[in-house]
Amino acid sequence: MHLNFNEMSLAQEIEKRRTFGIISHPDAGKTTLTEKLLLFGGAIQKAGAVKSSKIDMHARSDWMEIEKQRGISVATSVMAFEYEGTKINLLDTPGHQDFAEDTYRTLTAVDSVIMVVDCVKGVEIQTEKLMEVCRMRSTPVISFINKLDREGKDPYDLLDEIEGKLNIEVHPLSWPIGMGKSFQGVYSLYDKSLRLFKGGQQLHEEATKFSDINSPELEKIIGERYAQQLREDVEMLTELYGPLNVDDYLSGKVAPVFFGSAVNNFGVKELLDTFLKISPNPKPRKLDDELVEPTDKEFSGFVFKIHANMDPKHRNRIAFLRICSGKFERGSNYYHTRQDKKFRISQATAFMAQDKETIDEAYPGDIIGLYDTGNFKIGDTLTNGRKGVYRGIPAFSPEIFREVINKDAMKTKQLEKGLNQLMDEGVAQLFNFELGSRKAVGVVGQLQFEVIQYRLKHEYGASVEFAPMQLYKACWISSKDPKKLNEFINSKQRHIARDKDGKLVFMAESKAWLQMVQDNFPDIQFHFTSEF
Ligand code: G4P
């Protein structure tokens, strides 16, 4: 097949792009690592410039403060930079667990993930949850075990913990020598070189190559004790793991592991260099049931995040769109598949590290910001005319439910509008019961109720309260047999609701009861995510 010039440059643009996210439990070092990566890319000049993803400790239970800090973060929700000829799009993921859904959705827009683990604390709960989302999409994961300058867990135990808790095979590509006060450095199993760490910082000389680790040079550098230990470790690791099979990483089966210390900028460059060598560039994605290649010359993309309140006086929002195929050109008309309408996109923003700038064109893997006055919802697809939606942005069953109580009947319309818009932004999920006019709002974290209440009041003038509801899970239901589904709905009418897209949901009151209902209705499938 011969490619014409335009097709060739599209393929080249795709080839040089890497779109990824960093995930971690709060405090493991995500912000610090982000910052070091940006420093390498020359995107920022000094440490301390990345405030975005970090929510201050003292603000963690104060959502107003969090919102303020999130406000600052728009520009840094996506940090794009160039490094050695590669265009890197780093997507920020909120660390606060009450906004976990935001993070889940952001993960649908990346092609791979770097997971930061604190060597003192090991694998923590938020990392476990985020890894589940990665596994759903077989997202390739590289793990960076951080804070080696502290006395942490034994490295072998850390590998076991990752395998055990995160259900993924590991493959160490570097190995620490000592730890905490006696941390000497890391040995790269990937390119057989040693990097030394002395007196709290990286020694800036180049890594020492060791084609033969048995060379007596090793003793001279790290002393007899550590040299002996390292040789034993390397022998064991080489026997255990062998060379990395990159395909196993790309299919999400194996996670390469690096050790280092982000705050000391130690081990970060190796991580970045290897990441560039092995991480995937934009891959084909499913639009309905059709696999769309990024090189397909017809433009397409989907909205995975909406950021509101850019300016509280005007209700303006930015819709974040991930480009999946073709070339985006500002000023073109694109087809909004849900609304069945063409839109002229005259304003689009690229996110270059900390600045936003208007862009004229963008390519698969890139994230662009579209100014929005309420046309977009999370999950919306834009194309050149092709119908359908990009799959893979499921809603997950929320964990806490409350009934919405309207406190001002005169503002019912505003309430409806406000609720719908907040749901479009993905702040929470709304379930409308089929019987009566009850509405349940479901969230991942308690703070989201405060966000909704405050924003409804200040942006829409509506007053609400939330009443407790005895609900355990929202289960999306389906059946191969429409008659059986109808029978089920009729017999459980009081517990049937619709989600924002009109999909049928069974609102289960308790775990035990759900189990009983599942046993009694074997022809009904109960799903914990909206895509099945
Ligand atoms: P997060 O985004 O994952 O929440 O974590 P963040 O990078 O903010 O790091 C959390 C804390 O861990 C910070 O300290 C940071 O300096 C520290 N840290 C990051 N990497 C390392 C490392 O390699 N070694 C050690 N010892 N500490 C590390 P803090 O006291 O909370 O904040 P700060 O005042 O130091 O910024």
Automatic annotation (TrEMBL):
Q: Where in the cell is it found?
A: Cytoplasm
The record, for InterPro entries, names:
EF-G-like_DII, EFG_III/V, G_TR_CS, P-loop_NTPase, PrfC, RF3_C, RF3_dom_3_sf, RF3_GTP-bd
In terms of superkingdom, the source organism counts as: Bacteria
* UniProt entry tagged with the keyword Iron-sulfur: no
Q: Where is the Tr-type G domain?
A: 15-283
**Record bears the keyword GTP-binding:** yes
Q: Which residues bind GTP?
A: 24-31, 92-96, 146-149
Q: Which UniProt keywords apply?
A: Cytoplasm, GTP-binding, Nucleotide-binding, Protein biosynthesis
Write out the similarity annotation.
Belongs to the TRAFAC class translation factor GTPase superfamily. Classic translation factor GTPase family. PrfC subfamily.
What is the documented function of this protein?
Increases the formation of ribosomal termination complexes and stimulates activities of RF-1 and RF-2. It binds guanine nucleotides and has strong preference for UGA stop codons. It may interact directly with the ribosome. The stimulation of RF-1 and RF-2 is significantly reduced by GTP and GDP, but not by GMP.
Task: Output this protein's name.
Answer: Peptide chain release factor 3
- Origin organism of this chain? Roseivirga thermotolerans
Which gene is annotated as encoding this protein in its UniProt record? prfC
